[in-house]
Design goal:
Layout lengths: L12 H9 L12 E6 L4 H11 L3 E7 L2 H15 L3 E5 L8 H12 L4 E4 L7 H4 L3 H29 L3 E7 L10 H21 L5 E7 L19 H13 L4 E4 L3 H10 L2 H4 L5
Parallel strand pairs: 1-2, 1-4, 2-3, 4-5, 5-6, 6-7
Bound molecules: NADP nicotinamide-adenine-dinucleotide phosphate (NAP).
Length: 277
């Protein structure tokens, strides 16, 4: 495999962590190409995940609503790692296009061995709670658009009796809070949907993994959060790959969110309503 060094500006903290993470993963290459579809491929987290996969023997299909940006990411990955990458258009709320979209991915890749879904929209809670059009957009990006796509992915994986599906949810779905309950409710619905899908598909050899992410430094949270609880994308992507290899069903990333959410869920409702979180 040919590596081309691309000259670039000083790497960010995220990029440095990503570069450091990669040598440890190089030994995990397999003999055949794995064909992986990444949906929401322009997500900062999805890009970090794609870097890890691209280092292995994978063929990637990068789907995003900004197809041009997905193409740019694909070219960069192909130059760095020599992996074949294709890009395509995926718009969560364009339900009518999803069947043809997945058919196109199948034809392009030959077979789809794994799907990673990173589509999500946080929105602004103040607007989400007062303007239904805003709330609908958040629900469509995080939930109904995913249900539409996963209908076709689920049928396909079930017929093949193999493959994996990873979808990125959020700790926000574990408890409704005043500060983000429109987004949180869509992620809660996604988690329940995935739970049912896992129940249905696990007996057919299909692995469905729910990622419950805490705060991550991405464009979604740009300018919104800071501090020690905010994780970089490279370490989160690495934790997701490790969880997939251990065949985890539900994984909190970073791991400590499992304990934080255990406590938050345990607070009785009468007390919780007095908090401002
Ligand atoms: N960052 C965090 O703290 C955090 C915490 C918990 C969970 N998550 C989840 O992690 C996943 C990845 O997000 P991220 O943090 O990497 O943020 P991000 O960079 O903003 O990625 C979100 C992705 O979703 C895409 N998207 C949004 N609405 C869409 C639509 N209607 N149709 C198609 N694509 C759409 C975005 O496309 P564009 O690039 O075109 O905008 C982007 O690719 C999301 O599911 C998010 O909810 C993030």
């Amino acid at each position: 495999m040919r590596h081309i060094v691309v000259k670039q500006a000083m790497p960010s903290a995220n990029q440095r962590a990503l570069i450091e993470a990669q040598p440890q993963l190089a030994s995990l290459q397999t003999d055949r190409y794995e064909n992986i579809l990444i949906v929401g491929a322009t997500s900062t987290l999805a890009v970090a995940f794609a870097h890890i996969l691209a280092k292995r023997k994978v063929r990637l299909f990068l789907a995003a609503r900004n197809e041009e940006e997905a193409q740019r990411i694909g070219k960069d990955l192909a130059i760095r790692y020599g992996c074949p990458c294709t890009a395509g258009l995926f718009v969560a709320e364009d339900y009518a296009s999803h069947k043809a979209f997945f058919e196109h991915v199948r034809k392009t890749l030959g077979a789809v061995d794994g799907v990673f879904v990173a589509v999500g929209e946080l929105g602004d809670q103040a607007l989400n709670q007062s303007n239904f059009e805003r709330a609908k957009s958040v629900i469509e990006s995080n939930y109904t658009g995913m249900v539409s796509l996963l209908t076709y992915v689920g049928e396909y994986c079930e017929s093949r009796k193999q493959g994996y599906l990873i979808a990125v949810g959020s700790v926000a779905g574990d408890r409704g809070r005043q500060s983000n309950y429109v987004y949180g409710s869509a992620k809660a619905a996604l988690a329940t949907y995935l739970q049912g899908m896992r129940h249905r598909l696990s007996r057919n050899g299909v692995h469905v993994m729910t990622v419950k992410a805490g705060f991550i430094d991405t464009k979604m949270t740009y300018g919104l959060i800071k501090g020690p609880l905010v994780a970089d994308t490279a370490s989160v992507a690495k934790a997701i790959v490790a969880a997939l290899e251990r065949k985890r069903l539900v994984v909190y990333v970073p791991w400590f969110w499992q304990f934080i959410m255990f406590i938050i869920r345990a607070i009785p409702e009468w007390l919780f309503v007095k908090t401002k979180i």
